[in-house]
Amino acid sequence: MSLIKQIRIAISVIILMVAAGCLFLGVYDDHRFMAEQMQKKNNDNANGLAITLSNIQKDNVTVELIVSAQFDMGNYRRIAIVSPENKTMIERVNRNPHSVAPKWFQSLFSISIHPGVANIQSGWQQYGTLILESEPSLAYDQLWETSRHAVLWTLIVALMSYVVSGVWLKRILKPLEDVIGQAEALGERKYITIKEPKTEEFRKLVRTMNILSDRVKSMVTAESERLNVLNLQINYDEVTGLMNQAHFSNTVAVALKDDSFVEGMLILVQLRNLSEIDKQLGYSVTNQLIKKVGDAIRQQAEHYADVVSGRMSGGMFGIFSRQPLNDFAVAAEFKLVLEKLNAAQQLMQFQFVVAHTKTKKGDDFADIHRVMQFILDLSSDQAVVPMRVMNANSILTSRKNYLGQWKEQFLQAIEHKNIKLARYPVMQREQQLLHYECPLRLHIDEGDQWLAAGAFIDWASQLDMIKTLDGLALDCAVDMLHKSDDSLSVNVSAAAMRSDEYRAKIQNLMQTIQQPARLSFEVSEEAAFSDFLQFREFVYLVKSLGCMVGMEHVATRMAQLGDLHELGLDFVKFDASLIRDIHLRPQQQSLLRGLCMMVRTMGIMPIAEGVRDQKELDSLNAVGIEAVTGPFVQENLQFGTL
Hints:
- By secondary structure, the protein is α/β, with parallel strands linked by helices.
- The chain folds into four domains: 3-93 and 100-170, Beta-Lactamase; 183-234; 240-397, Reverse transcriptase/Diguanylate cyclase domain (Alpha-Beta Plaits), CATH 3.30.70.270; 399-636, Alpha-Beta Barrel (TIM Barrel).
- 53% of the residues lie in helices and 16% in strands.
- Strands 11-12-14-15-16-17-18-19 form an eight-stranded mixed barrel.
- The longest helix is centred in the N-terminal third of the chain and has 52 residues, at 3-54.
- The two termini are 44 Å apart.
């Protein structure tokens, strides 16, 4: 029972108790007053009737008529005349008194009065003694009616007090609801702050809790910034700010092996005369030039979605796209940017060569890099145009390249329900299955091949159909939940996350699920932090429906992880590029250990993606990862025997 309801009941009970006491005293006073009046009536009526009888002739008929008339005219219980010998001469008794007052009430407020007694004279002799008793039923009825009205008004006042006190208490205790909400949020490790109320006691409590939230928030923010600095030191080049060779190589290698990857692009830019520039202009000027080249590459890469860049070695830069792009056009644009930068150099211009190639799922990055490096070494000092190294066939040149055909194929797949969800297990250290990751698969061409998301996601985005596909994936997930007891997790695109239609669909479908916590939603790091306000609203909606929500592919926005302190996320999945060969990278272990501690402080479960072998798993367990997914989980771990 809520505090407000208890206080309201207490107020009403107190009012009822006070009213009951007042009522009892009032009824008791009325009872005493009526008893006194009835006693006077008995005495007065007895004396009056005795005088009347004393002045008439004493024949039995006349006396009896007068007594009967008096008895019938008044409200009497008994009128009797007793002779001096104590024999009843005349007696009239009301043997069936009528009263509306209940017996228990008459017993509680019993009216005990003495009968009126008077002597009847006949000359100088005593004729008899008159005994007169009034009937108290009328007094009981009047007392009962008065009590009923008093009780009714007391109940009305108590009810009004209950209602008014409820409104009043809600207004007074409104800050308490905010305090309770803040306390519940703190219990869930969501460190929120609220406005201090005017009530002194609440204000002190809220101020203390706000201080706690601010301290934790500051601690988490400082820790995320520290870890971001550590990440920059470990995984990024000090001069250019681009990914260093190890991190760039891991990122590309992980993408090429990812199940959702279909086709991408790799561009290498090599500065040919860097050693000559270093000799003539010195180390400092050379680094400034390298930084300018790195800035130009990074700024140009930001024009494309899902593109990363890194410094491979002294004068070697790499640009990689996870999406199918026209590598000829993109390489030419990078070449144009570098030519403009080169033309602006006053001291000494640099010579560069650009090579590009298509990449497809299953390619080995080390082999691709080795071939491209070999061709770059054999090329002239400065290529006139960017060189394409290999993989001439691509999705972009196939018949699926045309948006019209893709749209038709999407519509056919939707119409014929050629859609399904794959299942990849996420295992906890406690030998339990956390959930299945369920990426979307489409069956477009004839045959048994199902396309992974990487093969069609770019086309769906261009056709503005990504929200529709996410909605169909949600339908499939709900249908799977109805057919099994497993927990599932579905991916949510940036477009679907912002879509009111998709959110309404979630609300409608969640009403059909008995255990909404079995369904999780995953939003990518890039989508979440690119539109954080929409992401926060989406998280609040999903959590209010009882579902789980998390962030996937966390790798590059570590400085912003502290912003998650008030959302109440259930899990974050660290990208496989951070996990790759972690057992051989002590600094990376320190980084991941700090990340795990930070997210656990916010009540978030840290999960590792792309685990390949037992050595990586052992290292991840040591740094605090609580669940894992990847090829090793899919192929080697038996559920229940992890």
